[in-house]
Amino acid sequence: MKSSTCIVVFVAILSMVYIACNSDEKYKDLCKEMTECNTFESQTDCMQSFGVLVLSDECTDLMYESECTDHNSNYPSYRDTCFPECSPDEKYCENNKIYYCKNGHLSVYDCYRVCRYSQEDLGSYSGSCGAYGPNGEVSDEGAVCWCEAQ
Fold first, then answer.
1. Per-residue b/e over 105-127, b at no fewer than 16 CB within 10 Å?
2. Cα–Cα distance between 61 and 59 in angstroms, integer?
3. Contact criterion met (CB below 8 Å) for 126 and 134
4. Which helix (H) or strand (E) holds 58?
5. 122, 102 Cβ separation under 8 angstroms
6. What does the pLDDT look like over 128-149, one tens digit per residue?
7. What is the pTM of this model?
8. Strand order in the sheet with 90-94
9. Is the peptide bond before 76 cis (omega within 30 degrees of 0)?
């Protein structure tokens, strides 16, 4: 019985790794395109800005279909699909994600990727999201993803 439990756990871990890698590839491809459009100066800059977001397949499909002029406009055609309207302006954590409503549009940040990309693959998510860190730290910015250096 114990060996089948280990197999199930191992399969679940491999599935999570596969999902994480697939998700990263989608963002890396999108950032390659956006860097070629000069929307971002580098792949690293793009991954720190877009690679940390939770974007629907519909959103990324629209982004892939867009031209450089659309990516570089103040209001790209995919804006409302990718960043739905919200009210009131607020920032909070839920399920290892930060939900940030600002200027009437919602951005959702994945804490695992925030920590990985903000520290150039040298950080990992502590499992703590909010105004207070796992060791009693207090954020001046309200809700944040608390990262650990590797």
1. bebbbbbbbbbbbeeeeebebee
2. 5
3. yes
4. helix 57-65
5. no
6. 999 999 999 999 999 999 999 8
7. 0.79
8. 90-94, 97-102, 105-110
9. no
